[in-house]
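Input sequence (262 aa), recorded before submission:
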Amino acid sequence: MIRAKKSLGQNFLINENIIKIITNIIDVENKSILEVGPGTGNLTEYLLKKKPKKFFVVEKDNHLVSLLNKKFRDNISIINDDILNLDEQHICDDKLIVFGNLPYNISTEILCKWILNLNEEKKWFSNLILMFQKEVADRIISKFNSSKYGRLSILANWKLSIKKIIDIEPNCFSPVPKVNSSLLVFEQKKKFFKFKNPHNLEKITRVFFNHRRKMIKKPFNLLFQNNENILNRLNISLNLRPQNLDFETYYKLTDEYERLRS
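Predicted structure, token format:
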């Protein structure tokens, strides 16, 4: 019997209705797909019925790798590695449709890695169909002027369009987590702000949201030395708080930051 490992954030999806919802979101027939953290293969089994062209799974747990090998044999290609160490660009020449019941303890780290490393020349995925702790999902899809709006919202919405599909009750998993989950679908935007270094967006948002309840005067001055031309160009008041600036303003601030240092 396979026991979920708390250290790996494992909660296996067992609800058949939720599995069917996930597999019907997008047509995977004759397309290449990647499943992150397949666990005992409950979702894997249903996805195989949809006749994908190629099926890759990433699983870190050696015991689960053995189980998956016995259960699916040559029908899937198993990558026994930590998803955070993996170079997704080299998994497949095709664009991948990615499914993932992400471990709660590293879900934001995985998403941020994928966004920041997204190569415009070789876009390795077409869609991400991912499950998060509901609290994290709410932060991802949050809009400005909301208490949940923050760095994750700004980064996630930079290159991706995001749609929430459904909230999922704890009893749909084994073991039963203490929190609700949410299923989100991500699709790459055709147009988005281009930066010389994407990590500058991370820096701008980190400095601004370091004191999210205070006015933005201090972080602005720290980054831009009270440059009034930027304030006027972007129509920003220093009396605002970080959550009062929309996505586009943060992208423009990052662009201004890079211009000053070019």
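Checked by second reader. The chain has two domains: 6-188, 199-260.
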